[in-house]
Amino acid sequence: MDRAFKLGKIILFFIALVPCLVQTPDLLAARLKDIASVQGLRENQLVGYGLVVGLAGTGDGTQVKFTLKSIRNIMERMGIISIDPNQVKVKNVAAVLVTAKMPPLAKIGQKIDVVVSSLGDAKSLLGGTLILTPLKGVDGKVYALAQGSISVGGYSAGGAGANVQKNHPTAGRIPNGATVEREIPVDLLAKKELKINLFQADFTTVGRAVDAINDVLGAPFAKAIDAETISVRVPPEFEDSPISLMAAIENVEISPDTMARVVLDERTGTVVMGKNVRISTVAVAHGNLSIQIKESPQVSQPAPFSPQGQTVVTPGTEVKVKEGGGRLVVLKHGSTIGELVSALNAVGVTPRDLIAIMQSIKAAGALQADLKVI
């Protein structure tokens, strides 16, 4: 009886495990909102010119003429008219460019972050305060006003003989430093059709997205225009509530397909390879060559109390050449990226060696992937 009971528990365990195994591929799925965006709902870049005051002698020098003119203009607007430009010292003031990203559907009064960057020869913006600066869009209209204390994630200190610097003290941020003063109108109710753009164009992904959207809406309201754009007709039940339509389709889960690609960064020795990378039959042999040159000058002096002679320095150079024995590794047709990495690790290659090997495999026509060098 106990044996039958235990057998029944094992059977129930495997029955409960089957749905988990079936749903394993769905774990790789992504929501539509994470891989695409609605056409027309995007960020807008804002920029403005301003002054940062309150610096501890780290501002612009007197040779920065536009900072002098800006200070004079501000003083005149405040009622101080008689200003001698030769008496204006700008070491506590710095001219800056202020940039910000206005999010889509931003409303009047909403706060946004701004980035402040030095425009002249200021040494640091640490401790400075940005005075009221209008931020304009590409159309020349003012969309936000920025002002506040700057947060600089670095410092710079030193003297005549040495200087210590961390990060970039000539640039900083003002969290919630700008207030939106003008809205960008977007009328979603007037739209009879929504267009969704994928971040990465792919025919397989866009086909899966169309099928998933139509499954949720219950009818073929979505269609693919190209490898990046999906057109969705607003169903009759959502004509008065397009927000409900977006909420219904933005959480649709899709398994995005990716292109087989290998990215090589020669500056840092970083190699990134996608899972779909395949290798044709190829043999790889890589040997390490190291050359060490050591200079050891020899000093020859005359003997003590010698009647004549002079000190002579003779150069001494020692050269060592070491060539590692490269092992031959054969990769069969259709080898996966995991097999490639395991084989190259067995040879003992470094990331920089791997960059040279991947370029050689691509040149041989055995790498079935896009090779991108950055």
SSE order and pairing:
Blueprint: H1 2-22, E1 30-31, H2 32-35, E2 36-38, E3 44-53, H3 65-77, E4 93-102, E5 111-118, E6 129-136, E7 142-149, E8 155-158, E9 163-166, E10 171-180, E11 193-198, H4 203-217, E12 222-224, E13 229-233, H5 242-249, E14 253-254, E15 261-265, E16 270-273, E17 278-279, E18 282-286, E19 289-295, E20 298-300, E21 312-314, E22 317-323, E23 327-331, H6 337-347, H7 351-363, E24 367-368, E25 370-373
Parallel strand pairs: 15-25
Antiparallel strand pairs: 1-14, 2-11, 3-4, 3-6, 4-5, 5-10, 6-7, 7-10, 8-9, 11-13, 12-13, 15-16, 17-24, 18-23, 19-22, 20-21
List keywords for this structure.
374 residues, four-stranded antiparallel beta sheet, disordered N terminus, 7 helices, alpha+beta, six-stranded antiparallel beta barrel, Alpha-Beta Plaits, 25 strands, 3 domains
Q: What radius of gyration results from the CA coordinates?
A: 33 Å
Mean pLDDT across every amino acid position? 79
* β-strand amount: 25-35%
Tell me the helix content.
Answer: 10-25%
Envelope shape? flat
Strand order of the largest sheet: 3-4-5-10-7-6
Low-confidence segments, ≥5 residues, pLDDT <50?
3-27
Work out the count of structural domains: 3
Distance between the termini: 68 Å
Largest sheet: 6 strands, antiparallel, barrel
Number of beta-strand segments:
25
Q: Class by helix and strand content? A: alpha+beta
How many separate helices?
7
